[in-house]
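Review form for a predicted model. The reviewer records the input and the model, then writes brief findings.
Reviewer: anonymous (R2)
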Amino acid sequence: MAFAFLLVAGVVVVVNEHVELLPDPRRLEASEFLAVMLGGAVATLLGILDDALQLRARWQLLTQLAVALVPVAAGVTVTYLN
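Model under review:
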């Protein structure tokens, strides 16, 4: 389900670039969008691995911190909360 969301979100963003179906005043750069989507995919994989292997909490936390650093390293910042 998460991969379907990531796929649809990616398609919507690409289509919206050309057709502008949805107003998007706060655009992400391509590298920032890729970093957010990649982080979501890795977080999903972590959840799958945890379900299959019953990972210890410390490994889950370390992986989640590493996943969170991907968008941060790409320069993604939160400047607006609705």
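Findings: The chain has a mean pLDDT of 81.
Further findings: Residues 50 and 57 are 9 Å apart (CA to CA).
Recommendation: see findings above.
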